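User: Can you recover a sequence for this backbone? Please restate the input before giving your answer.

Assistant: Of course. Working from this structure:
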């Protein structure tokens, strides 16, 4: 792995707070460095402009005095000068130089050729003594070429820049510390709810009693990414609760309902094994066992269908003509109604609906089957669409639902007293309600003056 790759891997292993603080520190360092550089450049430019102005003025006064052969004028405090001939010999010089040459041979040659030379002597950092800024030009005095060198001291300028650097470094350092601390506090405060959520999830992972009493405390006075995460986790806990409740209900229902047919089957088999039986008796026993096995199969299929619908994973809506949907659902029940000399009528419009016929057709069939077995007279199936909703209504002319049964008609294994002598699992209307709920709808049963009515109102 390359060095940048190793650095990236190390950064990813750091805690989130540390990475945020590091990001803030690096960003602020870049911003402060850029700001400090800009301030330093502006101040340095202003100081250099003033120093260059003083140097140019002093150098011009020296030029005029040399051309006129006058006494060289004094310059700014600490200024120096030299006047050289064409061979580089010092003709006049400030007392402080004591014969020292300010120009190098190459610079003297360049000035002799007509160039203007300007440079600094000494450095800003580290601190050195006798820092100068000099400028040299060629002039003509009495017909002879002369090199006039003017120099001014940079001490005040350099001292101001060093003081500025110190202040910028101090201010930048304090600002970086303050920004890093603020970033740390902000990151800790922002991630504190995440830590609470993590603790809650850890408690859930260690819990053996379900999640009924475990909910994350989410503030209600704000709407940011963290609170939305909390709401999402709470919804996840709700779904886990619902899933656990469905699982418990499934086990309880299966245990309760499977006990009776299994007990009957064992009793039949035990009786058949404990005493000799003839062929006719054995056939009757096998028929009884077969009936109970069929009941078990129907019960298991109904429970599995309910579980699949409750989980929300079994519904796959598709576009289908309303007429075709109802014809397919009613096909087998038309013959049964004719056999009992009853009429089955279907009323619908010419519409296309988006539902899952794999589930909706059996639900309609359950309602028609109940009307055939427990109702009387004409059975009417009516379908209407309006505003993206499909309303299905099944009515008959029978005695209707027992009043005490209506409030629990769609509960699992709920059967009216009058229907307990007829075959059934008590899951038919529960399946109808589950199909309606899976289509974002509801199921409702009521008694009317003419008989029983069941309504399905679902999205389409």
């Amino acid at each position: 792995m390359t060095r940048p790759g190793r650095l990236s891997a190390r950064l990813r292993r750091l805690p989130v707070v540390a990475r945020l603080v590091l990001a803030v520190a690096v960003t602020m360092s870049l911003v402060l460095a850029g700001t400090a550089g800009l301030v330093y450049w502006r101040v340095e430019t202003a100081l250099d402009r003033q120093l260059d102005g003083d140097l140019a003025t002093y150098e011009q006064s020296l030029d005029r005095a040399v051309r006129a052969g006058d006494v060289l004028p004094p310059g700014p405090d600490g200024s120096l000068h030299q006047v050289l001939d064409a061979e580089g010999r010092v003709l006049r010089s400030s007392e402080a130089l004591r014969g020292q040459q300010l120009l190098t041979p190459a610079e003297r040659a360049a000035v002799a050729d007509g160039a203007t030379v300007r440079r600094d002597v000494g450095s800003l950092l580290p601190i050195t003594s006798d820092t100068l800024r000099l400028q040299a030009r060629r002039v003509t005095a009495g017909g002879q070429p002369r090199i006039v060198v003017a120099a001014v001291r940079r001490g005040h300028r350099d001292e101001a820049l060093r003081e500025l650097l110190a202040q910028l470094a101090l201010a930048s350092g304090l600002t970086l510390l303050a920004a890093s601390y603020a970033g740390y506090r902000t990151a800790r405060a922002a991630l504190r709810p995440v830590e609470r959520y993590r603790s809650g999830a850890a408690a859930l992972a260690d819990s053996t009693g379900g999640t009924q009493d475990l909910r994350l405390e989410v503030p209600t006075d704000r709407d940011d990414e963290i609170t939305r995460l909390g709401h999402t986790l709470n919804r996840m806990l709700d779904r886990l609760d619902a899933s656990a409740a469905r699982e418990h209900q499934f086990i309880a229902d299966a245990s309760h309902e499977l006990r009776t047919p299994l007990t009957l089957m064992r009793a039949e088999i035990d009786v058949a094994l404990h005493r000799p039986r003839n062929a006719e008796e054995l056939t009757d026993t096998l028929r009884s066992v077969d009936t109970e096995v069929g009941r078990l199969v129907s019960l298991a299929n109904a429970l599995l269908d309910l579980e699949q619908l409750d989980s929300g994973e079994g519904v796959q809506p598709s576009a289908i003509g309303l007429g075709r949907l109802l014809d397919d659902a009613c096909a087998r029940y038309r013959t049964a109604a004719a056999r009992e000399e009853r009429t089955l009528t279907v009323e619908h419009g010419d519409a296309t609906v988006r539902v899952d016929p794999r589930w909706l057709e059996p639900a309609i069939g359950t309602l028609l089957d109940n009307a055939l077995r427990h109702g009387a007279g004409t059975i009417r199936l009516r379908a209407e669409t309006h505003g993206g909703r499909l309303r299905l209504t099944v009515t008959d002319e029978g005695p209707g639902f027992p009043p005490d049964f209506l409030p629990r008609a769609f509960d699992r294994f709920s059967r009216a007293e009058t229907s307990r002598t007829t075959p059934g699992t008590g899951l038919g209307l529960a399946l109808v309600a589950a199909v309606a709920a899976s289509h974002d709808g509801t199921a409702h049963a009521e008694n009317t003056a003419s008989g029983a009515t069941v309504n399905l109102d679902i999205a389409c």
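That completes the design. The mean pLDDT is 85.
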